[in-house]
């Protein structure tokens, strides 16, 4: 019976994370401004396209909201699991985070066509592996400032977070836990895969750049 209750709690946490992650903040921000963000720019509902279409202020708001839903999915997942009598907090954290990223990338409301998972994944990682994501975000800011190409910053920062989480776990700089490291590597793999078109454009030398757009 206890095992069944734990499985039910984990399922509930995943569902909660998914529902939080599937909130399409970019799309809603577009609607507030009278625009269907899916018909403009890259047609993506993420903060990068929001920035491109509606400006930096709205893009930052979108990033913060997408980031927050990933972070909250972990925190509220732990709360829900504890309320349901499940004391395996580490597993609940992973379930909540995984659900949030899945919800953002594959939202049922948008026929499973969502964002690329960078901001939401960063929020999840912030709740699970603090220092690797802090360093990853700093790298993202640096690369975006230097290159003005968000894809380069996002892909590089995501890969860095995966590597840093592994190193921090191996050397004991932060107690992350191997299951969390595995989750981060899976999230990063999905994020990089979702950037496959950007990678192709980078190889061809014609990737979108905010520097180009400003000219």
Give a short synopsis of this structure.
This protein is mainly α and 215 residues long. 76% of the residues lie in helices and 0% in strands. α8 packs antiparallel against α9 (178-194).
Task: Summarize the structure in words.
The chain is an all-alpha fold and 215 residues long. It has eleven helices and no strands. Helix 1 runs parallel beside helix 5, helix 5 runs parallel beside helix 9 and helix 7 runs antiparallel to helix 8. The relative contact order is 0.12. The model has no long low-confidence stretch (mean pLDDT 92).
Secondary-structure blueprint:
Blueprint: H1 2-21, H2 25-32, H3 47-54, H4 56-83, H5 89-105, H6 118-128, H7 130-147, H8 150-171, H9 178-194, H10 196-204, H11 210-214
Helix pairs in contact: 1-4, 1-5, 3-4, 4-5, 4-6, 5-6, 5-9, 6-7, 6-9, 7-8, 8-9
Radius of gyration: 17 Å
- DSSP E strands, number: 0
Give the amount of beta strand, in percent.
Answer: under 5%
Which shape, going by the Cα principal axes? globular
Helix coverage percent: over 70%
Structural class: mainly alpha
List keywords for this structure.
215 residues; mainly alpha
């Amino acid at each position: 019976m206890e095992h069944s209750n734990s499985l039910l709690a984990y399922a509930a946490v995943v569902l909660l994370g998914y529902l939080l992650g599937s909130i399409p903040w970019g799309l809603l921000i577009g609607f507030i401004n009278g625009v269907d963000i899916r018909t403009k720019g890259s047609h993506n509902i993420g903060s990068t396209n929001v920035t491109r279409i509606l400006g930096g202020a709205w893009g930052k708001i979108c990033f913060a909201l997408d980031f927050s839903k990933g972070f909250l999915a972990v925190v509220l997942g732990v709360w829900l699991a504890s309320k349901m009598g499940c004391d395996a907090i580490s597993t609940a954290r992973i379930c909540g985070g995984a659900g949030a990223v899945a919800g953002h990338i594959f939202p049922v409301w948008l026929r499973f066509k969502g964002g690329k998972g960078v901001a939401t994944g960063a929020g999840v990682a912030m709740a699970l592996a603090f220092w690797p994501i802090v360093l990853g975000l700093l790298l993202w800011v640096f690369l975006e400032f230097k290159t003005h190409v968000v894809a380069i910053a996002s892909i590089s920062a995501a890969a860095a977070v995966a590597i840093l989480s592994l190193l921090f776990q191996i050397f004991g700089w932060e107690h992350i836990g191997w299951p969390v490291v595995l989750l981060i590597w899976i999230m990063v793999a999905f994020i990089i895969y979702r950037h496959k078109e950007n990678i192709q454009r980078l190889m061809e030398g014609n990737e979108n750049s905010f520097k180009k757009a400003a000219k």
